[in-house]
Design a protein that fits this description.
5-stranded mixed β-sheet; Maltoporin, Chain A; 33 strands; 635 residues
Length: 635
């Protein structure tokens, strides 16, 4: 911990959270209102077309929402020409579909609205095998680990632009706003966890607005505001604001964060230009790991087009800057990222490539990735990717993964994947203090390269709404870095080893179609467990999801989640490993949608279990409640 706690502005009280949230960002609301008035003629709010009733499908869609209900807002009839969707930049289609066997999960717009997530970690912890790592309540540094992957193996991509860390080795997941998300795609590969963020763009000729407000225990208040305008200053405009304010556990972990986001573009048929800007600031005080202020800005310019029938290409250039102000010091850092990506698709094949060049040391200077796949008649699919990065003083790192899927043959399909290679983790000068037992003097290194080999093979059965899958796992790594976030900032490589285990996934429809049971289990049965790798973890859910009216204007969602993360080793701030006891909790989530108004309630740790933590000396609170409303409308 460096310096003394920073003093924060007065806190909002839960009893007046509607007024307080509206006052939290008056400038942003005024700007949104002005743009809305300028973008379209004044008229009364137009109601949303009625939603069809939720019907039980013949077969369950791939589990791409990690237990979150799929999109249900399908149009009942073609829209008139006056309401036809405005032109948008062509999308990079996903070559690999979502599903447990593929190791890919995806949330669409409706699933994100139904999730009730406050941070990105709230979404990711629903994925089987993913372990959340929280240093406190809302607003404190967060990360996730999948199959023991830590720093250098957690990738975050915003509309094709890599959100690289500027002060830590890992991007702090608590610092990413959720107001602007249209789609989140997570690839849980054997040697990395890749999170792709796709931000919102106007999809209707009418202006679209959304407001989310929430409050709860520990004097927590949340405000999110969004505006999408199909035509403003010639092109489509999207903007949003996201603000979180909390006193934290025992009113001793004060945190305030604010994010603003803007995206504007010009589209000419299949070609388009786009400007995207995100600005984020945070302030933490009290008994936190690293009190102080920080800010970050990302500005991206991109040109994208569909060159041929199945060929999409993009050029992008971005600039990222950040300032970290712990106590009375300040560290400013900025860098550029430029690159290109291309994707070509045929009826039975796909191929893609991405090139990046960065200016900020110690991030990799040059990076390239190639991916390809083919679907042969006879129900065999082969695919894979290979990556290379130049880590300047640390040298090059090459990795690859190959995947295969056979089937389906009746209800069954077999799958397997193999990954081998190296990846690097950056060490910034202000966090890489001299440590003779780990790396040596900080002046002599900028990154560490670790090697990891892994394999996964299994079988999945699917019949109607029933699903059951099992897979065997083997992972070998030479060493493991920490996340190098404030809660484990000491640069050190911990001993790796070999582990073998298995994972299960299942979904069971019950006697009444709105009810179902879902669950996942992962266990390591042999080998040496390194940091952030628990011996087991599981999640079981009882789900009630129903639209009882034919109009679809009422939707009920109830989830009761039991989950456990086994005991694991985790680093202290000084780098020493310490055992963290198992964490077990029961959570409830309720959401009621009437037309376009959603009310939600999150009740975590219902049984009020104490002495739970993800990290040494960073206790999590007992039961906690958070509730609020989400309101969307078209003008």
């Amino acid at each position: 911990m460096r310096g003394s706690p920073a003093r924060l502005r007065p806190r909002l009280r839960p009893g007046v959270f509607f007024d307080g949230c509206a006052r939290a960002c008056p400038c942003a609301l005024a700007l949104a209102l002005a743009l809305a008035l300028a973008a379209s003629p004044a008229r009364a709010q137009e109601p949303t077309p009625p939603r069809p009733p939720a019907e039980r499908p013949d077969t369950l869609p791939p589990p791409d929402t990690a237990g979150v209900p799929p999109d249900t807002a399908a149009a009942t009839s073609p829209e008139p020409d006056s309401l036809a969707p405005p032109p948008r930049l062509v999308e990079f289609a996903d070559a690999v579909g979502a599903g447990w066997s593929a190791g890919v999960w995806e949330w669409g717009p409706e699933a994100l609205l139904a999730s009730g997530a406050v941070s990105l970690t709230d979404l990711l912890e629903q994925i089987p095998g993913v372990v959340p790592v929280r240093s406190g309540l809302f607003g404190q540094p967060q990360a996730v680990s999948a199959f023991g992957m830590t720093g250098g193996r957690l990738e975050l991509v915003l509309d094709g632009y890599a959100l690289d860390p500027l002060h830590d080795a890992t991007f702090d997941l608590s610092r990413l706003e959720l107001v602007n998300l249209e789609r989140v795609r997570v690839e849980r590969r054997l040697d990395r966890l890749r999170i792709e963020i796709h931000t919102l763009a106007p999809g209707d000729r009418r202006a679209y607005s959304r407001v989310e407000v929430g409050t709860g225990d520990f004097d927590t208040n949340l405000f999110r505001g969004l505006l999408l305008v199909p035509r403003a200053l010639i092109g489509p405009l999207s903007l949003g604001v996201d603000r979180l304010d909390t006193d934290g556990i025992g009113r001793r972990q004060n945190a305030t964060s604010f994010a603003g986001w803007l995206k504007w573009g010009l589209v000419f048929g299949r070609l388009g230009l786009q400007f995207e800007l995100r600005q984020e600031t945070a302030e933490r005080g009290g008994e936190v790991v690293l009190p102080g202020k920080s800010s970050r800005r990302d500005l991206v310019l991109r040109a994208r087009g569909q060159l041929l029938g199945g060929l999409v290409a993009e050029l992008f250039h971005g600039w990222s800057s950040g300032e970290d102000q712990p106590a009375d010091s300040a560290v400013e850092r900025s860098g550029t990222q430029a690159g290109a990506r291309v994707l070509a698709r045929g009826a039975r094949w796909w191929a893609g490539a991405t090139l990046r060049r960065r200016s900020l040391d110690p991030l990799p200077e040059n990076e390239a990735e190639l991916s390809a796949g083919v679907r042969w008649p006879g129900r065999l699919t082969l695919g894979g990717d290979v990556g290379w990065a130049d880590w300047r003083d640390a040298g090059g790192a090459t990795s690859y993964e190959v995947r295969a899927e056979l089937g389906p043959f009746g209800p069954a399909r077999a799958f397997g994947s193999l990954a081998r290679g190296e990846r690097g983790v950056p060490f910034f000068p202000d966090t890489a203090a001299a440590n003779d037992t780990a790396f040596g003097s900080a002046a002599r290194f900028t990154a560490a390269i670790t090697e990891r080999n892994a394999a996964r093979a299994g079988l999945e059965l699917a019949r109607g709404g029933f699903r059951l899958g099992a897979a065997a796992l083997t992972v070998v790594t030479d060493s493991v870095p920490g996340f190098l976030l404030p809660f484990d900032s000491t640069p050190r490589l911990y001993a790796g080893g070999t582990v073998r285990g298995w994972e299960l996934f299942g979904r069971l429809p019950l006697f009444w179609h709105p009810l179902s049971l879902e669950g996942a289990y992962n266990a390591w049965i042999s080998g040496f467990l390194w940091p952030y790798l628990p011996a087991h973890n599981w999640r079981a859910s009882f789900v009630y999801h129903h639209s009882p009216l034919k109009s679809g204007n009422l939707e009920l969602l109830l989830r009761l989640d039991g989950h456990e993360r086994g005991a694991m080793d985790a680093p202290r701030v000084d780098g020493a490993l310490e055992r963290v006891d198992a964490l077990r909790a029961l959570d409830l989530y309720l959401q009621i949608r009437v037309l376009d108004l959603r009310t939600f309630l999150r009740w975590e740790n219902i049984t009020h279990r104490l002495r739970m933590a993800d990290l040494p000396d960073r206790a999590l609170p007992g039961q906690r409640v958070f509730w609020g409303v989400k309101w969307q409308f078209w003008n």
